[in-house]
Amino acid sequence: MPKTATNYDFLDAPTQDGDLGMLGSYRILGELGRGGMGYVFRAIDTVLERPVALKVMNKKVASTPNSRDRFLQEARAMAAVHHDNVVVIFEVGTHGGTPFMAMEMLRGETLEAINKKKEHRQYDRVIDYARQIARGLGAAHAKGIVHRDIKPANIWVEEGTERIKILDFGLALATSPDADASGVGSVCGTPGYLTPEQARSDPLDDRSDLYSLGVVLYEMCTGKLPTSQPAIPQQLVALLTGSPTPLRELNPDIPQPLADLIHQLLAKEPRDRPANAAALEAQLDVVARECEAKSETAVSLSKLQLSLKEVVDKQDDAKTESFDMAAFDDLAVPATAPAAFPSSPTPKPGSGAAANRPAASPPTGTHPSGKHQPAAAARPAPAGSKTKGSPAPESQPLSPVVWMGAGILVTLLLVLGLLWFILPGQPENTVSVVPPAEDLGNAESSPAPRPTPAPTPPTPTEKAAPSSSRSTPAKSEPRSSNENRTRAPREPSAPDTPAPTQPNASIATESTDVEMPVETTPEPLTEPDVAAVEQEPAEQPDPTERVKVNTTAGIGADSTVREDYESSLGTKPILLVQKRKGDGEDKQHVHLRFDLQAAGVSHADVQQARLGMVLSIPGHEKLHDTTLNLYGFDAKGADRWREEDGNRAILWENSISREGLDSLPLLAQWSSEGPEYANAQVVFFSSPELAEFIRKATGNSVSFVISGGNLEGTAVRFISKEADAAKAPTLLLSVAAPSE
Ligand SMILES: Nc1ncnc2c1ncn2[C@@H]1O[C@H](COP(=O)(O)OP(=O)(O)OP(=O)(O)O)[C@@H](O)[C@H]1O
C-alpha cells in the first residue's frame, strides 16, 4: 500500500533515533500497512521486549459513535481466542484516547497478496487452507465471535510453514457505525465478499463466515469472485438473484467434490451450508479422501493402460503387424475427467508422477513404479508409430491375440472406470487425513481451542525435553540428557508473562505457546531451534566441543519418503512421519543425512549425540500415543541415498524404506507420554547407541530413518531445511576437543 506522508499526531515523541514515535510503552519503528480502520505499525513492546504489530485505530473511525468502545470490546473478545489459526493478540487498550491492539508480528503475506501473483493453486492446497481457516473460525465461533469480514486480506499465510492466521476477528462490526449487537447494521465492506444475509439485512451468524470462506475458496480456485458487481447496491441484488458460474467451468482441474463443497458454502440460505465450522472440516476430510482416491484410481488406470500397451506392443512386434495405439489412448481416462487432477506435487521431469499422468502427459522414461526403464519401453508410441514402414492399410486384419488383448483391456477399463465413479471414499489402507506431502504445511493444527496455559508455561526447552525425549535403550547418558536443564539464556523469556504495568492489559498472552513471533527487523529474536538446549552453562570444565550439524551442511539432506507415492518429496517445507491409519503399518518415513565431514567432525571423536527435529506445529495436541523410531543406516547408500535426484530427494521405491527397517539398528525412540508433549516444540532423540553409531559410521556422512506415528494415522510434521535452514533437523554433537 503506498504510504503518503502522514502526521502521526497520536504518537508521542520518539525515544530513539529512527523511530516514528512512542505509543504508551511501544516504540513505533515503521508502518506495515493501512486498512479501513487505521494503521498497522511495526513496533517493540518495551516492557516485554518483543516485537509486535500494533494496530492503531484512526481518529475518524475512533470518533464515530460507540466504535471505540466496540473496537475494544471486540478486540478483547478476539484476544480470548487462542488458536494456531488465529492471530495472537497480546494487548488491547487506549493511549491518549487512541484505541490500539498489539498482536504477534507475522512473517509472510496475506492471501490477497498471494492471489495477486495469479499462481496456479493446487486443489489440495485449497483444501489445506480451507481446513485451517475452518479450524480458526471454529475456535472463534465457539467463543461466540463471528468474524464478519472473511476475505483474502484478512487471511495471513505464514512464510515457510504455510500456516494460516486469521486476522481482524469481529472488527468489522466494531467499525460499522450503526451496527447493533446482532450484527445487523449498514452494509459496509468489499462488495465481492458480502453475504446474502447482508443483502437481506438478516443477522450475521457463524454460517455467514462460512459463506465468505466459500467466496475466498472460489477465488483461490478460479481467480474470480462468484458474484462481482462494481458497487454495493448491485452486488446485493446479484447476491439474491444470481448464481455463481459453476466453478469447474472456470477451472476444470478442481475436483468435483471440492467444487460441490465450495458451491454449498455459497448457498443463499445459511441452512443449506455446512452447519458449522466443525461440520465443514469434516466435509473437507471427506472431500480430500475422495479426491485422493480418485487420483489413485486414475493412476491405476494409467498404469494398467501402459502395461497392456506393452503386452500388445510385444505381440505386435512379433507379428510385425501395424497397430494403431491411438485406439488404446482413446480408452484412457478422458482428459477432463478427475483423473487429470493435477497430482499434488508438481511432477519433475522424469519423475514417477510425470509418468503416471494420464494420456495427456506421456511418460518420459520413468516407469510408473518409479524405477527407471528404458525410455522406449515406457513411452507410449504416438499414433501410428508402431508401423514398421508405412501405416497399416485399414483393411488389414488384426491378429486374434491383439483383439483378445484389446477386449480384456476394454473390459478392465470399464470395470475400473465404473469403480472410479462409484468409489465412496478412500481405500481403507490409505491415510485419511493427510493431503499429499508437499502441501501439508499446517493441516494438523488443533481443531479445538488450545488448552489454557499454566501461568508460567515451561520454556520451549523445558517443554520439549522432559517427557518428549525418551531415549531407549539409554539408561542415562551423563551429558546428553538435557531434560532438566534450565532455560537457555537466549530463549524467549517474557512473551508468556502478562504485562503487569499495562493499564489495559486484558490479555494473558499465549504467544509462545503458539510459536515465537518472528520479527523481520531489527531486533535479534530467538527461535525455538534445537541448539537452544545446548546453551546451559557447563557445570565443570568440559574437555569436549559442542558441534551443531544440520541437514543444510555439505551433502546433508532431509527428505520424506512415502510408500506408493511416485514423486520425490525431498524439496518440501515439511517432513512427515506417519503410519497407516488402522493397521499401523509404516507409510511415510523421514530420511536424514548429516555431513560430518563438511562440519569438520571426525566420527571417532564423537562422545555424545542428540538429534533434534523442530515440530512444524508446536503443541501438537494430536500426537497422543505416538512413538517415533530412529534408525541408523550406514554402508552402501548412506553417503548418497540410492538414486536420489539433484534435490537430494528419494523415492520410497529407491530407498532403504522399501526393504523394511528391521535390518537397521534402532538407535533411539521418542514417545508422547505425559501431558507435556502437547506443548513440545522440538523432538529429541538421544542415546549412547546413537553416539556409538556415529562413531562407527564409515562414510563422510551419517544417515538416519525416522519411522512410526500413531494408530490414528496422524502425521508428525517437522520443519525441513527448505522451510527454514535455522530449524532444519540438527545433530548436536559433543566432540573430543583437540589436545593442545
Ligand atoms: N500481525 C501482523 N503482522 C504483520 N503485518 C501485519 C499484521 N497485521 C496486519 N499487517 C499488515 O498491515 C496491513 C494492514 O492491515 P489492516 O488489517 O489494517 O488492513 P486490511 O485488512 O488490508 O484492511 P481493513 O482493516 O480495512 O480490512 C496488512 O495488509 C498487513 O500487510
From TrEMBL:
Taxonomic classification: Bacteria, Pseudomonadati, Planctomycetota, Planctomycetia, Pirellulales
Region Disordered: start-end pairs: 338-396, 433-526
UniProt keyword Heme present: no
Enzyme class: transferase
Highest rank taxon of the organism: Bacteria
Keywords: ATP-binding, Kinase, Membrane, Nucleotide-binding, Transferase, Transmembrane, Transmembrane helix
Residues that, per the record, bind ATP: K55
Name of the molecule in the record: non-specific serine/threonine protein kinase
Residue stretches spanning the membrane: 401-423
Composition bias type Low complexity, residue spans: 374-383, 514-526
Domain Protein kinase: 26-287
SMART domains registered for this protein in UniProt: S_TKc (SM00220)
EC number: 2.7.11.1
Compositionally biased tracts (Pro residues): 448-460
Molecular function per GO: ATP binding; protein serine/threonine kinase activity
Annotated family: Belongs to the protein kinase superfamily. NEK Ser/Thr protein kinase family. NIMA subfamily.
Listed Basic and acidic residues bias regions: 476-490
